[in-house]
Amino acid sequence: MRALHILTFAIAIFLYVDALPYDKPKVHTIPLKPRSITRRRFSKRAIGSMQLSVDRGYYGQITFGTGTPQNFDILFDTGSGSLFVLDKNCDSPECNDKPKYDPDVDKSFSPIDGKYFFIDYADGSEIKGNSGKTTIVIAGISVEAQEFGLADEVSGDFDHPWEGIMGMELIDTSGNQQITPITNLINNTQQLDNPQFSFLLGRKDQSPSELTIGGSNPDRYHADTLTFTQLVDDNDGQWEIPIDNCVVEGEELNLEGRTGFIDTGTERIFMPPDDAHDFYSKIYDAEDDGDGTYKLDCGSVYDVALEFSGKTWDIAPQDFTVEIAKDICIGAVIYDENVPESKWVIGSAFLRNVYTIFDQGNRKVGFAQLA
Ligand SMILES: *[C@@H]1O[C@H](CO)[C@@H](O)[C@H](O)[C@H]1NC(C)=O
Predict the structure, then answer these.
(1) pLDDT, mean over the chain
(2) What are the structural domain ranges in the chain?
(3) Active-site positions?
(4) Residue 340 needs a FRET pair 20 to 30 A away by CA distance; which of 99, 140, 143, 363 works?
(5) Ligand 1 mean position to 69 CA, how many Å?
(6) Which residues form ligand 1's pocket by a CB distance below 6 Å?
(7) Pairwise CA distance, residues 285 & 320, whole Å
(8) 104, exposed or middle or buried, with CB in 10 Å at 0-12, 13-18, 19+?
(9) 274 φψ region: left (φ > 0), alpha (ψ -120 to 50), beta (else)
(10) Superfamily assignment of 4-211 in CATH?
(11) pLDDT tens per residue, range 38-76
């Protein structure tokens, strides 16, 4: 899911920073565990995998706190940078009947006084609350003094099977200025085998979905097909890579200088309107609905592929043609005038077709053929 500012870009970042009533950012000091050189050299570092559930997004369990550990379903989102969980003081209707975090029973919790938490996502949901720190555990790996938002107010759009979102951008660009759990693990404690995390994004109820932190799971992909693409230099802390090409029904779109945000928190592929019109002009029976979508024939099979670093990856027909109602289908490519010029948001409609390695240490994204 894109934090809204992504779509309106730099201007919005400045507006948010100006508009946010919280205190000036403080220097974050995170205690490093003292370790002897010998122990450090020989200590086994961590890699952990966890299974994910899928329902309009890929989510899995994160444990918050110590004393009485509290487990929550959290969406894993490479398109945003903040972590939050629903707080026990949340009285928005969307919080009813959902598990909520209780800081009072968490022995590791410390509030960050006066630091307001706010984020609004491209899907319209808005989250407000306070900030705090605690120990969290993801895929068996523990992150101490992790900053997060305690969501006291969520908008009516927050109708999801999960109770929070973990942003996995390189840095938190959403204005909350948190250090992400992944960045904490890589930069501050060097706890991971590799400065990477990887996703297998399955199709609903058909195939497994999995997140691996600290490397990748070699059982899930063909290593000889793994191809990395460096992030663009001006990535602003986002997983943004150059797109070589897009092939529709055997025809190349002759677009130059396009880049894509690799976003596990978005279901579809978003393009600026001109690019999407170009894209669908190659599909003879595509019909512009005027609302960002194009209608397609549910019974037809369309060949669509994206090319990165000289390698072409097909999008399977079941990912490209989306049945939104009985016998009514649209293409997974959506146009939106809020998408910045020459930038595409590449969500799970594409990512289900590859194994994806987010290499944060080396600032690159790898795609490989699924095993
Ligand atoms: C983490 O380390 C990278 C590489 O040294 C650096 O560019 C980045 O700014 C660091 N992030 C934080 C939040 O300290």
Answers:
(1) 89
(2) 4-211, 221-368
(3) 77, 263
(4) 363
(5) 29
(6) 171, 179, 183, 187
(7) 15
(8) exposed
(9) alpha
(10) Acid Proteases (2.40.70.10)
(11) 333 344 678 999 999 998 899 999 999 999 999 999 999
